[in-house]
Specification:
With about 90 residues, the protein is of the alpha+beta class. It has helices spanning about 25-40, 55-60, and strands spanning about 1-5, 10, 45-50, 65, 80-85. Strands 1-2-3-5-4 form a five-stranded mixed beta sheet, with helices on one face. The radius of gyration is 13 Å and the shape is globular. Helix content is about 25%, strand content about 25%. The protein has two helices and five strands. The protein has one domain: Aminopeptidase.
Length: about 90
């Protein structure tokens, strides 16, 4: 997780080695990242990925990320998919 600005974090460069895929590790990592964002008071988590990574995109969708227009140019040359997840705060 990279803090981009107050309340805004990027889920960046998450990967699971090919030899360990299919075991739920990516989902565990993604869930932990979202929990971390919630714990530190994030309002939004976003990510940029490539449309060829269909499995990763399905994972992000399961985690609650939604496709959105990318209003900022990406520093990642191959990124052509932008997704966001608004963080819902638990009420105390």
């Amino acid at each position: 997780m990279l803090r981009v600005s107050v309340g805004r974090y990027e889920l960046a460069k998450m990967a699971v080695a090919p030899s360990h895929r299919g075991r739920g590790i990516g989902e565990q990592l993604g869930s932990a990242a979202v929990s971390f964002a919630r714990d530190v008071g994030a309002d939004t988590v976003f990510l940029q990925t490539n449309s060829r990574l269909a499995g990763a995109i399905r994972l992000y969708e399961r985690l609650g990320f939604r496709h959105r227009p990318d209003l900022h140019p990406s520093e990642y040359a191959r990124a052509d998919v932008y997704m966001e997840l608004p963080i819902k705060r638990h009420r105390s």
